[in-house]
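Q: what sequence does this backbone want?
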């Protein structure tokens, strides 16, 4: 934050303090009170020092965008802003608030030591699914005595996906086991010539994941595992499998609940009108499916 983009004005307390100083000055002039003049000018000097300290509290701070949470509809999205202090002096009581359509919710005040770093958590309501962009953020401070408010604006091109709210008490997940695709059932339970259980001699064309590398290195011969590789149970989560009486948001809420109920052990595929995500598992795959639900029908196949 440079000098050209910092703004400062007195607060209500500052205006009250200024009126008090004016009353003290008028009284001292009317009654020619020397101690009144001294006290008035002393308080004026303190007020000017407070104005400079408030201005310096935000001067040359470096603010950058950090990670963003992906909430469900009806929850709160948290945008992290990284704050770096490249000066040796401490920075006290730094606040940030997003200029959103609803009531602004200020982030907890942040205090930084000299050459320190910290995080401001800007919270925004996420009432509906879809993309949520971080609006202009106002970074401000009222340090040291709340007599002046200094602020600046920060704009970051940061967005997050708001997932549909999962349906409470959704029906059980429709799980269908994977069909066998390897065609190696005849080899299950086979024993190699040297007596090693579930191993056989390597055959040209065996996939690499079937090769028993440790046993091959120990025996000096290429060996393959004869057992069938276990497959994860899985299913397709299909838009068209839901009752036709359900509206769009209710369907997306149920599909979201099924995705969360599946967890990591399942292979899950997702079918939406114009969108098809092949079966997979893991946190990354589940996040891709949730994002497809969040932005549908924005992301559709041509």
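A:
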């Amino acid at each position: 934050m440079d000098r050209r983009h910092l703004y400062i004005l007195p607060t209500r307390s500052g205006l009250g303090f200024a009126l008090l100083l004016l009353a003290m000055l008028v009284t001292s002039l009317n009654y020619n009170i020397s101690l009144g003049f001294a006290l008035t000018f002393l308080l004026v000097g303190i007020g000017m020092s407070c104005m400079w300290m408030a201005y310096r509290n935000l001067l040359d701070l470096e603010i950058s965008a950090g990670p963003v949470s992906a909430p469900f509809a009806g929850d709160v999205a948290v945008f992290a802003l990284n704050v770096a202090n490249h000066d040796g002096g401490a920075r006290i009581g730094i606040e940030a608030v997003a200029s959103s359509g609803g009531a602004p919710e200020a982030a907890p005040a942040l205090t930084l030591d000299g050459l320190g770093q910290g995080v401001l958590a800007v919270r925004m309501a996420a009432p509906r699914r879809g993309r949520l962009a971080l609006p202009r953020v106002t970074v401000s401070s009222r340090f040291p005595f709340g007599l002046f408010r200094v602020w600046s604006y920060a704009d970051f091109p940061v967005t997050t996906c708001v997932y549909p709210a999962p349906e409470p008490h959704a029906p059980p997940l429709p799980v269908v086991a994977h069909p066998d695709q390897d065609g190696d059932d005849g080899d299950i339970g086979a024993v190699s010539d040297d007596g090693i259980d579930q191993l056989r001699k390597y055959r040209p064309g065996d996939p690499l994941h079937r090769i028993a590398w440790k046993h091959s290195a120990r025996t000096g011969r290429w060996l393959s595992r004869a057992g069938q590789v276990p497959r994860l149970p899985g299913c397709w989560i299909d838009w068209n499998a839901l009752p036709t009486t359900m509206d769009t948001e209710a369907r997306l809420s149920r599909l979201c609940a099924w995705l969360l109920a599946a967890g990591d052990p399942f292979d899950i595929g997702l079918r939406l009108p114009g969108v098809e995500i092949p079966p997979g598992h893991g946190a990354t795959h589940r996040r891709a499916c949730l994002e497809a639900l969040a932005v549908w029908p924005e992301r559709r196949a041509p």
